[in-house]
Amino acid sequence: MTLILTRSDVLALISFPEVIAAVRSAHEDLARGDAVLPAPPSMSLPGSGSAFLVMAAASKSADLATVKLLADVPANRERGLPAQRSAILAVSADDGRCEALLDGGAITRFRTAAASAVATAALARPGSRVLGLVGAGALALAHVEALRAVMPFGRIVVWSRTEATARAFAAKTGAEVLASAEEVVKTADVLCTLTPSKDPIVEGKWFRPGLHVNAVGAPPRADHREIDTEGIRKARVIVDSRLTALHESGDVLIPLGEGAIGPSHFEDELGEVLIGARPGRTDSRQVTLYNSLGVGLQDLAAARLLIDAARLRGLGTEIDLAG
């Protein structure tokens, strides 16, 4: 039987502590060679601004292989629809049976914030107390909840291009709305950039010593980035996957194309830091930056949790695809 989990099913089952732990373990498995994560192919139709990304992964410990088809449709914003939509197909790594089909929207939001929490716990300065957010949408709300689970932030500051969005976010989280992205960057100990920007919205000249950055929001397109070249050059960059970063990250590919840095600037993966194969933060003044593209292995980790929880609690819909 194949389990179908709708968005409402996912939201009834998912929680940050479990997803954070699962994402951490998944990256550790990747670093140890117990998981497979190929670079995702991207497709676009002639004359269309949409992109379709195929995000695959397989894991021995999870006994699962997954494929998420992500549709990135910028024109949806004008239609009042989500710019990104996705679905995840999961099969048994043991015998290939189709285990589940899951709505990907909520899963993507949770696992993305969970990955930032994992990176922050591993890389941020001990004693970091000010969380700054550039962007104030649903992903920002998820980041506040996830990062509070790993660090006791006493202050949250936020900026958004849309003041009403920032004010609504502040009402829900207790954040302070600042007048510019620059003010947020200069105030924060830990910074999360959470905008679908094509052009840099954060400048490296604003970085204070000891800052940790989670660069999250730019879509998986080689010409989109939130951090300027100076910011990437100044930071110790950790990626979720070298293959993925060199395939689709504008934050990586644009500075490389400019000759500002070389490929070695992006050779450290998060999982390698987690298992001690690569160093984490080396001193209190170092600027660290987690280049978060979001990878299929994170989706797989969340899917394994949800499939097991749904069957334990009797949620979702079981169908016989072979019937």
Please give a structural write-up.
Helices cover 36% and strands 23% of the residues. The model has no long low-confidence stretch (mean pLDDT 94). α3 (105-123) crosses α11. α5 links the parallel β9 (155-159) and β10 (176-177). The radius of gyration is 19 Å and the shape is globular. It folds into two domains: 2-107 and 297-319, ornithine cyclodeaminase, domain 1, CATH 3.30.1780; 122-295, Rossmann fold (3-Layer(aba) Sandwich), CATH 3.40.50.720. The protein is built from eleven helices and 16 strands. The protein has 323 residues and is α/β, with parallel strands linked by helices. The strands form two sheets. Strands 1, 2, 3, 4, 5, 6, 7 and 16 form an eight-stranded mixed β-sheet that branches.
Summarize the SSE layout with pairings.
Layout lengths: L1 E4 L1 H7 L2 H17 L2 E2 L5 E2 L7 E9 L4 E9 L11 E9 L5 E6 L1 H19 L6 E5 L3 H11 L6 E5 L3 H11 L2 E2 L3 H7 L2 E4 L18 E4 L13 H6 L1 E4 L2 H7 L1 H9 L9 E2 H5 L13 E4 L4 H18 L3 E3 L4
Parallel strand pairs: 1-7, 8-9, 8-11, 9-10, 11-12, 12-15, 13-14, 13-15
Antiparallel strand pairs: 1-16, 2-4, 3-4, 4-5, 5-6, 6-7
Helix pairs in contact: 2-3, 2-11, 3-4, 3-11
Pfam family, one: OCD_Mu_crystall
GO molecular function: oxidoreductase activity
Protein name: Ornithine cyclodeaminase/alanine dehydrogenase
Q: Which band does the percent of strand residues land in?
A: 15-25%
Question: So, CATH architecture of the largest domain?
Answer: 3-Layer(aba) Sandwich
- CATH homologous superfamily classification of the largest domain: NAD(P)-binding Rossmann-like Domain
Mean pLDDT: 94
Instruction: Report the order of strands and helices.
Output: EHHEEEEEEHEHEHEHEEHEHHEHEHE
- Work out the count of structural domains: 2
Helix content: 25-40%
User: Whole-Å distance between the termini?
Assistant: 9 Å
Describe the global form: globular
Question: Are there runs of 5+ residues with pLDDT below 50, and where?
Answer: none
Oligomer classification: single chain
Put simply, the count of helices is 11
Helix-and-strand structural type: alpha/beta
- What kind of sheet is the major sheet? 8 strands, mixed
Overall CATH class of the largest domain: Alpha Beta
How many beta-strand segments? Answer: 16
Q: Which fold does the CATH topology of the largest domain refer to? A: Rossmann fold
Radius of gyration: 19 Å
